[in-house]
Amino acid sequence: MIVTRHSKYCQCGRKKMKQTNFPSVFLGILACCALSVIAEDRYQFFTWEITQGTISPLGVPQPGILINGQFPGPTIEAITNDNILVNVINKLDEKFLLTWSGIKQRRTSWQDGVSGTNCAIPPNSNWTYKFQTKDQVGTYTYFPSTKIHKASGGFGGFNIAQRSVIDIPYPAPDAEFTLLIGDWYTTSHKVLRRILDAGRSLPNPNALLINGQKDAAVFTGEAGKTYKFRVSNVGVATSFNLRIQGHSLKLIEVEGAHTLQESYESFDVHVGQSATFLVTLSQPTSDYTIIASSRFTDSIVLTTTATLRYAGSNTITSLSLPSGPEANDVAWSIKQARTIRLNLTANAARPNPQGSFHYGTIPVVRTLQLANSKATINGKLRYAVNGISYLNPKTPLKIADWFNISGVFDLNTIKDVPPSPGTLAKQGTSVVGFTLHDFAEIIFQNNEKFIQSWHMDGSSFYIVGYGDGVWNSDSRKTYNLVDGITRHTIQVYPNSWSAIRVSLDNKGIWNLRSAIWERRYLGQELYLRVWNDVQSVYTESNIPPNALFCGKAKHLH
Ligand SMILES: *[C@@H]1O[C@H](CO)[C@@H](O)[C@H](O)[C@H]1NC(C)=O
Ligand SMILES: *[C@@H]1O[C@H](CO)[C@@H](O)[C@H](O)[C@H]1NC(C)=O
Ligand SMILES: *[C@@H]1O[C@H](CO)[C@@H](O)[C@H](O)[C@H]1NC(C)=O
């Protein structure tokens, strides 16, 4: 069956909603009208003061980035379609920006909070983000997007629950826990930045933390009850494997997609990814250990623990600790990754079945093959994608594009395929130009020995395959074109490729970056410009009235 793609508006009273990409237009219109009549979307306001403070996650005081005095920052608990306003007051001694990882910012890359879309918030000033969690449900995060601030804190959970009229494909859990797990350095982001600016590689992280603590967080539940564990990798470099003594993890969602509900003894989460599990407290009352251990770290395996405590427990279980996979067992991880599949009949944030968009039957209009590499430029360490090491212009790309400011970027800097072997990498501002609604294939080729993680802003993509060695057109024969999962961040194993397909339905300029911060800071990122010539607020919002201006646009305010 060939599925036609359409963009239709349904007009319900005074509200217009966009209905994209679902063949069941009739159902969609019904749902959209019914829902918009029921309630005006809710508003949530936050005022966040960003400060430098002292934290001691490993028992020794070190500088950290706090939000309203907290490390990690506060968790946002939202409902699908909430309007979120966050007034960020920057009390640091340097510029600051937050990005909302996986929040699609429908029609408004203006709120994405990365250098290509926003001028950073200067010290001692504030800026208010305003966006909607449109048609999203699931586990997400936010974090600082510049200057390696993320290595010092400023990150937090961003949970989006379904609206009351929407069914979820699992029994409602008794309560929820948010677990932000990531690697950690005892040195501040400023020291790390100096190392990278000097053209050197970062040392290995010192530890893994769970909610800002090592071996100390406690999650208490009652025997017989079922809990939702929202798990995110908030680190800067390290994949981890998660497991709970005596308990299995039933996967229900990754990054906004409801999965086939498989149970796992242990589960890999790569940098920038989120996964949500149900855990039933089916063991005798006791304390059980939650373990996260680093993956694909040659030299040392970092491990951290937390406690799953049954209410009333005064013992520690005598069960042995679950061991998890060998640190460098790639085959184990790929095998597991292939089991993470979309539940085609389940709905996500909308009532439409997730399988109603038959991604496997849609013709690809363009294939990008993006190969990451390590380079030396001007005697310093840099990283490149298709031979281009990204340089951040002083003017955000989005602002340059909107005001027709020339000389900031062009669409010919990066090519669709990697350069021939031996070509020297150079610096440039890579932007790939797509037409709104293009259906694209992107191959991430990793010919290096480390594990890569790629994140796309603005859209979720379908994961169609993982494979060894160098991708070629025959690799398509191995694709999952039926029930590949959608997510916003994909790992690429050492000397391997990962392939995605994506419908570029969100007009704007969107960051595509390595979630490994050394790599990103030194050039492994680019932007996708998703564009059509029709200027309309139904395809893209106007520049917000409070927009900050900098670089060549500085005179504009
Ligand atoms: C800064 O904060 C004040 C309130 O404290 C608010 O009125 C103003 O709109 C904020 N500025 C921006 C640019 O968001
Ligand atoms: C898929 O979703 C349906 C709801 O449409 C649910 O009843 C079913 O259990 C789910 N299947 C799996 C394998 O997760
Ligand atoms: C930029 O150029 C486009 C097309 O040439 C035009 O439609 C638009 O109005 C221009 N924008 C500004 C702010 O001048």
List bound small molecules. 2-acetamido-2-deoxy-beta-D-glucopyranose
As for the CATH topology of the largest domain, it is Immunoglobulin-like
User: What's the number of domains?
Assistant: 4
Spans of at least 5 consecutive residues with low confidence: 1-37
> Roughly how many Å is the radius of gyration?
23 Å
Structure write-up:
With 557 residues, this protein is mainly β. The chain is 8% helix and 39% strand. It folds into four domains: 2-40; 41-165, Sandwich (Immunoglobulin-like); 166-345, Immunoglobulin-like; 357-556, Immunoglobulin-like, CATH 2.60.40. The protein has helices at 25-38, 189-197, 330-339, 397-402, 517-521, and strands at residues 7-12, 15-20, 43-55, 62-67, 76-79, 83-90, 98-101, 125-132, 138-144, 156-161, 175-184, 207-210, 218-221, 226-233, 239-244, 249-254, 257-258, 263-264, 267-269, 274-280, 287-295, 303-310, 366-377, 380-385, 388-390, 426-428, 431-435, 438-446, 452-456, 461-468, 486-487, 489-492, 496-504, 508-514, 525-531. The strands form eight sheets. Strands 11, 12, 14, 16, 17, 18 and 20 form a seven-stranded mixed beta sheet that branches. Bound molecules: 2-acetamido-2-deoxy-beta-D-glucopyranose (NAG) (3 copies). One 2-acetamido-2-deoxy-beta-D-glucopyranose is lined by residues 403-404. Belongs to the multicopper oxidase family.
Summary tags:
about 550 residues; mainly beta; Immunoglobulin-like; six-stranded mixed sheet; 5 helices; about 10% helix; binds 2-acetamido-2-deoxy-beta-D-glucopyranose
